[in-house]
Amino acid sequence: MPTTNPASPFIARQQEELRDRLPFHDTRDVDDAARGLVARREPGAVTAQDGRVVWDGDSYAFLDGDAPDTVNPSLWRQSQLVAQQGLYEVVEGIYQVRGLDLSNVTFVEGDRGVIVIDPLISTETAAAALALYREHRGDRPVTGVIYTHSHVDHFGGVKGVTTQEDVDAGRVPVLAPAGFVEHAVAENVYAGTAMSRRAGYMYGAALARGPQGQVGAGLGQTTSLGTVTLVPPTVEITTTGQEEVVDGVRIVFQMAPGTEAPSEMLFYFPDRKALCAAEDATHNLHNLLTLRGALVRDPNVWARYLTETVDLWGDDVEVVLASHHWPTWGNARVVEYLSLQRDLYAYLHDQTLRMLNQGLTGAEIAEEIVLPPALENAWHARGYYGSVSHNVKAVYQRYMGWFDGNPAHLWEHTPVERARRYVELGGGADASWRRHARRATPATTGGPPSCSTTSSSPARSTGARASCSPTRTSSSATARRTGRGATSTCPARPSSATGRSAPRPRRPRPTWSGSSPRRCCSTRSPSRWTARAPGTRRSRSTSCSRTRASATGSGCATGC
To answer: What is the distance between the alpha carbons of residues 303 and 318, in angstroms, rounded to a whole number?
Structure first.
């Protein structure tokens, strides 16, 4: 990829602070992601019939060793785990192919053949995954398909593993939660064009792979670019506790609508003590409102369904697998994992509502909220795909809508019209450009600055604006900083009321603590302007409403 600038010292220090603060000593995920490997697909690229590459897992071979300063070390770690590809044994009779698309495809062996769970995005990647499975487990026919939910990365490749003819003939039942087709169409057709466009930005699929480009999307590395298909379900799951037998395999279902998808379900294989958590419990903090666009998800019911999952099968389950990432084994670890995932969404929901009712807006809550240590230090609760900031704003939107309560925001100008008015406020395009050019290239020669008055709009009470060229020389009586290292000898702008100098008040800087320049306190806390003497800058006193300890134990600085 093209050579770009190295990480700035600020970014490098921030990355180092993360390395010191996060629990990199906890390597259980590293062991779990590698457990059960049967074989990798060589090569890792998948092509369409016309030779076009629709998936290239080999392009992530650079994910080796420690994270460079250009990449968040936590995201680097996640991408190293997610980029691992191949056929993996979960438990006897259950296999997954991971790393061939954004999502996983799972194969459950039955009496006559194999049941396919979530056949990826594209027919090409799904067919490649099935071929890898058959290469090592025998040429078993597909005897059933299960869609866990209504997102395209869980059904788009279905015609790579079965045909419409086999489904119509009853040889391959297709199971899905109630409302699947309605929501799959609503999300992928009604707003499909706009969502696809935004998804390109969200996943960074067009960026060059590398430490200074695209390193992964957290939930998976990126999206495949093959053929998307759909076979409508033939068996609808409607109630929690509904049990179906497919190719001799007992499956007990749990409905979870309105969680990660409007139509979603989890299910349990009692004979193998294995739980498929769909996308309601994965190894990251998920989106409550994905940036590509979707309905706002409900973290309250999300948490409630995970509580129900633990109540239903927590005493017996020995492994939990999902439609993304790697499984977790052992009853105690599974229950802890599901419980922390439950607590994550419940905490974001409850604390956002608490602050919302105190009068804070979504953006303000996003700056205030901090996860408790149990969640902050759980790798699977980190925001590789969703984020605390984005999710808080999504909860605010779910309950309060787009309006933040400020009447000035009821009917705002469009960005273009707003920009035009900002330029006019600055004295017009020509004057604004001249000021920008002068600040970008400060004068280095001697001599007094030239000052001129300009006005591109009708006369106002403050009179014409002064346009001054900066110079390196200054007068102690009249000097005023106007640019990077430059000063102006133009008189200070008079106040329309008193005639004395009235400098523009500046926003206070936050107080930083610890060894890194990470913000610990929000200046959006309740505040007041303090009294000031004439001609002096106004200052703002703030109250610190939260403390966030750093790795060295230092908390929020006093008076931030």
So the answer is: 21
Mean pLDDT, range 376-382, rounded to an integer? 96
Q: What are phi and psi of 354, to 5 degrees?
A: -60, -50
d(CA 443, CA 544): 43
3-state helix, strand, coil in the chain (%, to 5): 30, 15, 50
Structure tokens at 530: 């303090």
Cβ proximity of 338 and 306 under 8 Å: yes
> Is 86:38 a contact under the CB 8 Å cutoff?
yes
Q: What is the dihedral of CA 83, 84, 90, 95, to 10 degrees?
A: 90
Cα dihedral 128→132→137→138 (10° resolution): 60
Q: Flag whether pLDDT at 546 surpasses 80.
A: no
3-state DSSP assignment of residue 326: coil
From its phi and psi, is residue 323 left (phi > 0), alpha (psi between -120 and 50) or beta?
alpha
- What are all long-range contacts of 332-337, with beta carbons under 8 Å and residues at least 24 apart? 333/28, 334/275, 335/310, 337/281, 337/380
- Torsion, Cα 303 307 313 316, to 10 degrees, reads 110
Residue 403 has which token pair?
A: 């309006």
* pLDDT at residue 469 greater than cutoff 70: no
171: which 2 tokens?
């040889």
* Ranges 100-109, 439-448, 464-473, 496-505: which has the least confidence: 464-473
**Bridge partners of 519?**
512
Show Cβ contacts of residue 432 under 8 Å, excluding neighbours closer than 6 positions. Answer: 423, 426
Asked whether the beta carbons of 348 and 392 are under 8 A apart, the reply is yes
Write phi, then psi, for 454 (nearest 5 degrees): -130, 150
